[in-house]
Amino acid sequence: MRNNKDNKLQAFIFFFWGREISGKKLTEDESALSKLLEESALKDLDTHHFNHTKRQILLNIKHQNDTATSGRYFTSAKMAKFLPAAILVLLLSLSGVSVYKKYFQPDVYFAESSGLKVVLKDGSIVNLLKGAELTVEKSFPEDTRLVSLKGDAIFSVAKSKIHPFVVEAENFNTKVLGTVFKISQSGNKKSVDLYEGKVAVSYEGTALSYLKPNQVWTNFGISRTAAIYSKKTDKKSGKQIAVIESLSFNEVPFGEIINVIKEHYKINIIYPNEIASKKISAELKGSVDDNIDILAFAVGLEVEKHNTNTYTLKK
Fold first, then answer.
1. Residue 173: what pLDDT?
2. According to a count of CB atoms within 10 Å of the terminal CB, is the N or C end of the chain lower?
3. pLDDT at residue 29, as a whole number
């Protein structure tokens, strides 16, 4: 049985052939590639083997046509139209796999035991962290410079005002025109850490998020959740702290939202257990007190603040 790679190559070859016999001219690049494929198929064949195989293919085509058309006249002119296909079919059984790998199979870079630096054709640099995998199509770079990433990596993207660079990560995408950023993926938790430039992050179920330098996008490991926080230096301690800029939840269980709020604001929130599984949507951009008021209102509760760190939500 022909494997999936061979099937893709066969479809690609017969696309060329179908264009040619329909009267539509191939583009210059397509003609050059078609010729290259044919030459690759022929170079390993002696004349006798080639002619014999070609005759067998054409006879099979004629036989199938006779069976399907119940006696229609199959002219040599019609049969000749199958000649390019017959020649190219040889490629699939001889050098098709090697040609596919050279011209069509995506390049895959895997940082197995340590980090790996990858320099792309457009000059962009990707530093894969241990265990990360980067997939780059042979067509890169196109109008949109598209790559796929599993694991963690730091990107330094060559600047281009007209050719966006898109990283397809696991369940979310990051789009840039030229910048330096880090993508981290640990289980369900995803994040984009921006060092310079601008990026747009799209994640299923949430609005498009735009980052500025020293900002981080994350989903906290929760579906349909997005947050942006800034990395700033605390004036008193001199330590780096995370300041939440926005929190977005789209039909997320109330209990999971409360856990995020408690963790990142370092506070305690008491609420009725029976509403933990209730799904709500909320956009939070205000102070801690404002955000808790919004969440309480969404589930029909009142807020009682005991001290700076403890809140009770009650009916």
1. 96
2. N
3. 67
Residue with tokens 């080639």: 50
- Residue 187 in contact with residue 160, Cβ under 8 Å? no
Sign of CA dihedral 222, 226, 230, 234: negative
135 token code pair: 């997939």
Chain mean position to CA 143: 16
Largest CA distance in the chain: 94
Percent of the chain as helix, strand, coil, to the nearest 5: 35, 35, 35
Partnered with residue 270 across adjacent β-strands are 312
pLDDT score, position 142: 83
List, for the chain, all residue ranges whose pLDDT scores fall below the cut of 70.
1-31, 33-103
Distance CA 69, CA 125 (A): 57
Residue 53 is given by DSSP the state H
Please check whether residue 260 is in contact with residue 247, taking contact to mean a CB–CB distance below 8 angstroms.
yes
| Contact criterion met (CB below 8 Å) for 164 and 172 | no
Partner residues linked to 154 by β-bridges:
127, 182
Q: What gap in Å lies between CA 92 and CA 2, rounded to an integer? A: 9
Q: Assess contact for 163 and 181: CB atoms under 8 A.
A: no
On whether the CB atoms of residues 302 and 296 are closer than 8 A, the answer is yes
Q: pLDDT digits over 233-264, tens only?
A: 888 888 888 889 999 999 999 999 999 999 98
List residues bridging with 133 in a β-sheet: 110, 150
Question: In angstroms, rounded to a whole number, what is the distance separating the alpha carbons of residues 187 and 221?
Answer: 8
What integer pLDDT is reported at residue 1 of this predicted model? 41
Backbone torsions φ then ψ of 35, nearest 5 degrees: -65, -40
